Amino acid sequence: MSTGLFQLCMYAYVSLFQVFYSEEEKNVLKRCFSDLMAVVERPGGVHPRMAGVLDKVFSRVKKVGGDIGKHKRRRLSQRTWKDSNANTMYFD
Fold first, then answer.
1. In what order do the strands lie in the sheet with 6-7?
2. For residue 68, is it within any domain?
3. Across the chain, what does the average pLDDT equal?
């Protein structure tokens, strides 16, 4: 291809150094997350087993989102690879 991009899957394109997600994939992820939040915000609460499933999902989201937020709020640029973790090692 002349653009230097090739199709990784139907939702993401990969160039030499970056992965670009399609608008369709972003919309699917937003819809899925809004469905999760709709379950959490139900006035009657959720079943304890469903709460366990949601806790696993949300703990991972909090971990990755917290690491990215912390990385974005840094005052100094990272000095070495030790200033990153697995979630922010390749964050641009």
1. 6-7, 12-14, 19-21
2. yes
3. 77
Domain coverage including residue 15 = 1-41
DSSP letter at 75?
Answer: S
pTM of the model: 0.63
**Is residue 51 pLDDT above 50, yes or no?**
yes
Cα–Cα distance measured from residue 92 to residue 82, given in angstroms and rounded to the nearest whole number: 16
pLDDT tens string 64-82? 888 878 877 776 665 655 5
Are residues 13 and 35 located together in one domain of the fold?
yes
Does a structural domain hold residue 79? no
* Alpha carbons 77 and 83: distance in angstroms, whole number: 9
